[in-house]
Amino acid sequence: MGQNLPQALPNSIFIGKADGHQPLGMRTHPNLRILYVDITPIGEIAVYRYDGRGVPSFVRAVADSGAAPCWTVVNHKGTRLYATNTGDNSIAVYDLTDPQDPMEIQHFVMDATTGAPFSTVIDQSDEFLYVSSEPSSADATPAANAFHTLKVAPDGNLTEPFSPTVLPIGGSMPVRAQGISVFGTK
Known about the structure:
CATH architecture: 7 Propeller
Helix content: under 10%
Low-confidence stretches: none
């Protein structure tokens, strides 16, 4: 079996928009053959189905009320999608009752004392969403590199009950903390 050919984002979702065709992050649904793709420049999430060989077919794109969605995670039950928006320090929460037509239910703005949200992971219990932030400009303070713990309510909505933890990194050059791993059991 050979490699699948690359597939461009559909031109139809860029009609009337000057921004480029630049997907950034993507995440699969945990139980279905569905792929969610962040289209950062236009603030949308593309939804694809894929077959048993991994060949995708475009379903639709849905709007993200935040700015510059970059990374998404889906909870383990497959009922919520969380899109990290680096452009406005927020997380868009989507209901996946119909996984092929995500519906945004919350636009959660994170603590603004740190940098832009970047890496995101959800714990095995689906109770906490962990987000790292990083400098979004050359003049950012060392506090831009931080770790956020967001509480996931039973309905999937988010709160930030704790102050972010500033990571002890920095120096004379801008440093960007990237990546998070969460280990544990249910």
